[in-house]
Design brief:
Elements: H1 6-14, H2 19-70, E1 86-87, E2 90-91, E3 95-97, H3 100-103, E4 119-122, H4 129-132, E5 167-170, E6 184-195, H5 208-212, E7 219-221, E8 226-227, E9 230-231, E10 234-239, H6 240-250, E11 251-255, E12 274-276, E13 289-300, E14 309-319, E15 345-350, E16 363-364, H7 365-372, E17 377-381, E18 392-402, E19 408-417, E20 423-434, H8 454-458
């Protein structure tokens, strides 16, 4: 048996921890661990929060790129399919989500880190067909997809005139029409993007600021991150100036029939619409001969722009008792001799030879149309009175045309018909030339390093 001296026993006793001491140590370690976990969790939340901001910036850039290419902003997506929603030409709603499929990005690109879809709010007049067509003045025409581009540098908001139903962002919890200037971060905005973040699915018990961002009105709040009251929303905005800057940078020349041109000659049709009545037809719908009436106009961009591509657009109203001989799916009529009804047509010819000698002459239909086939571009429109209740049709046409060697766009509008009552009225003739996008930079070639698999380098 081994015996210890008192000194040895004392040494052994002092080398350990009492239960109380151990409990204290474990408690301290627990506090440190809990604090570390809490700090780590908070850091994770902050990282996810910042990811929402990057998603907003991507969506904004994609919307501006869409506007640059298509010359209008898309409407909100209201059914979650990634496509804008319209009722006729107007937006179905002024609030929704980002139409990611229209923008060419993925659904994940327009969701915050908690899986909530980014909100997309727009000028609230864009749901009105009358407002969206009131171009180029009304702010809603930034969303007009039928007369492209509908907006220009005169589109509201302008200095001294903010327009109507644009959006406002404040830096205070309460935001309204009476908010003071120092509390306004952005005003007269065309669109606002909102990332709802962590409590994006929460509907009740929201703070005043977060509730403001979800009530679908004109006002939004961008405040600092806060735990009490809770606020973690993030916002990006699109202003009229951002859209106009792209318009101003891209439009080289614009001609239309309601104003003088920008940098080029005046459109000869500037005094009003082009009315094209039917020619001296013999009023026999089964005749081989057909009347023709032609209106021609030339838009000059200058010889220095020869070979450049321009976009021509116009509106047309077609009226009268047209026959299409079954082209549009109707059943063609025949007379007692078995003759088929005529194929009356509204014809557009661009950059072709002189066809003025056909005007008001009886010509064989095929021979007259053949002269238009010599144009750079020819388009025929057919109508049938049996397929329309009021014998009135509406067209919006858009063509990309290469200017001739003189830098000119020659336009021939024609009506081939058997009755002089068959008429076409053309208006809003616009020809626009956009600057070409910058060429992508060339990158130097890279010589592979011997012995290294390049797929491993880039993967």
């Amino acid at each position: 048996m081994r015996f210890f001296t008192n000194k040895q026993q004392k040494t052994i006793k002092n080398s350990g921890f009492s239960l109380i001491e151990m409990a204290v140590v474990l408690g301290v370690v627990g506090l440190i661990t809990a604090g570390s976990v809490g700090m780590y969790s908070e850091q994770q939340t902050h990282v996810k929060w910042m990811e929402g901001d990057s998603k907003l910036l991507l969506s904004k850039a994609s919307l501006l790129k869409f506007s640059r290419v298509n010359k209008f902003l898309p409407c909100p997506d209201t059914d979650g399919d990634g496509l804008e929603n319209r009722t006729g030409m107007a937006c179905t709603a002024n609030n929704g989500t980002v139409p990611f499929n229209d923008l060419g990005i993925s659904q994940a690109d327009v969701q915050d880190s908690w899986g909530n879809a980014l909100r997309y709010a727009i000028n609230q007049s864009a749901t009105s067909a009358a407002s969206i067509a009131n171009c180029p003045i009304d702010s809603a025409c930034f969303f007009n997809n039928t007369t492209i581009p509908a907006f220009d540098l005169s589109t509201l908001p302008m200095m001294g005139n903010a327009g109507t139903n644009n959006l406002r962002v404040c830096n205070t919890a309460s935001c309204n029409a009476g908010t003071a200037g120092a509390s306004i971060d952005g005003d007269a905005l065309i669109a606002v993007l909102v990332s709802l973040n962590e409590n994006g699915t929460t509907a009740n018990g929201l703070g005043v600021a977060e509730a403001e961002n979800r009530d679908n009105d004109l006002f939004f709040v961008q405040d600092d991150y806060s735990e009490s009251p809770y606020f973690d929303d993030l916002i990006q905005t699109i202003s009229a100036n951002e859209l106009k800057d792209r318009y101003e940078a891209e439009v080289i020349a614009l001609v239309n029939n309601t104003s003088t041109t920008v940098g080029v000659n005046t459109n000869p049709s500037a005094t009003g619409t082009v009315g094209i009545a039917g020619g001296t037809g013999d009023n026999n719908r089964f005749s081989d001969s057909i009347g023709v009436n032609i209106e021609s106009t030339t838009i000059a961009f200058g010889a220095e722009n020869a070979g450049q591509t321009v976009t021509l657009t116009f509106d047309a109203v077609i009226e009268g008792g047209w026959e299409d001989a079954g082209v549009n799916g109707g059943t063609p009529d025949t007379n007692s001799s078995g003759d088929l009804e005529t194929q009356d047509r509204f014809l557009v010819g661009l950059n072709g030879g002189d066809v003025s000698h056909l005007d008001d002459q009886l010509v064989n239909l095929d021979a007259g149309v053949a002269e238009f086939d010599g144009h750079q571009l020819t388009d025929s429109f057919f109508y049938d009175e049996n397929l329309d209740s009021d014998n009135t049709w509406y067209e919006y046409a858009s063509y990309n045309v290469v200017l001739d060697s003189n830098g000119e766009l020659n336009i021939d509008f024609a009506v081939f018909s058997t009755h002089v009552s068959e008429e076409v009225t053309v208006s809003n003739i616009n020809a626009v030339m956009y600057s070409a996008p910058d060429a992508p930079p060339s990158f130097p070639s890279v010589t592979p390093i011997p012995g290294i698999d390049q797929t491993d380098v880039f993967n």
